[in-house]
């Protein structure tokens, strides 16, 4: 069963990336355009308002880029940093733990995007159109290099 799971890993990672990116982009769209229930008060955040409007722009654009798999690592790094900033400036002062201070979404998004920085986009990413090698092929090549005996 393990070989089957290894073959499916890039696609599972792609599904994870797409879902997380879409959810994050929806947060940004809600805050900027007032759709999907809007910001916390049901409306939109006025343009240029610090830090909420800028965070919403990062959420919308970063989430869309991550979902598409375009510039995934950089978009995920910026998104992760944005959520870390949100956690420590908005939530941390209210209580120690995310469960107590309402910062669970910020903390989870921060770590999820940091994971994507290190794992990359997986399969089905637009990044693959601009590189010579697809992510799943890189994984196979790297594994083959590790298993190749070295002549002394």
Structural description of this entry:
- This protein has six helices and no strands.
- The two termini are 35 Å apart.
- The chain has 152 residues and is mainly α.
- Helix content is 67%, strand content 0%.
Cα gyration radius (Å): 18 Å
Number of beta-strand segments = 0
Helical content band:
55-70%
Strand content: under 5%
Structural class: mainly alpha
How do the helices and strands follow one another from N- to C-terminus?
HHHHHH
What is the tally of helical segments? 6
Mean pLDDT over the full residue set = 86
- Please report the distance between the alpha carbons of the first and last residues: 35 Å
For the biggest sheet, the summary is: none
Q: Which regions contain 5 or more consecutive residues with pLDDT less than 50?
A: none
- CA-based shape: globular
Could you give the topology of this structure?
Blueprint: H1 2-33, H2 52-68, H3 72-91, H4 98-101, H5 104-119, H6 135-147
Summarize the structure.
By secondary structure, this protein is mainly alpha-helical. The protein is built from six helices and no strands.
List keywords for this structure.
152 residues; mainly alpha; 6 helices; 0% strand
